[in-house]
Request: fold
Amino acid sequence: MSKLVLVDAISTFHIRYVVEVADNDIDQAIEVVKLGKIHDEFSQKHLGETVISQREVSVDEYLETFDKDNDYLKNWTPDQKMRYIHVYDANDE
Reply:
C-alpha cells in the first residue's frame, strides 16, 4: 500500500550581486543586499536541498496543508490538488 510523505526542505543558492557605491561607502553594498533592496542578481548557483523533516500524512492532512500553503488555490477541487503529489517509481532511476 502506498503512503504520502511530506518532506520539508531548504533550498540553498549561492547568489552574487554587483552594487555600485561611492568610494567612501563600500559597506552600503552589504546593507543594500541584506535589506532586500537589490533584485537583479549577477549570478546564482543552486547548491542543493537540505531536508529538515519528513512525516507520513493522510490525504486529509495533505489537502489541509495544500490549502494552508497555497491559500490562493483553496477553491481548486481535491482532484486538482492531488495532481501535485510526486509519484515515486524506482524504475525511473
User: Anything to note?
Assistant: The chain has a mean pLDDT of 94.
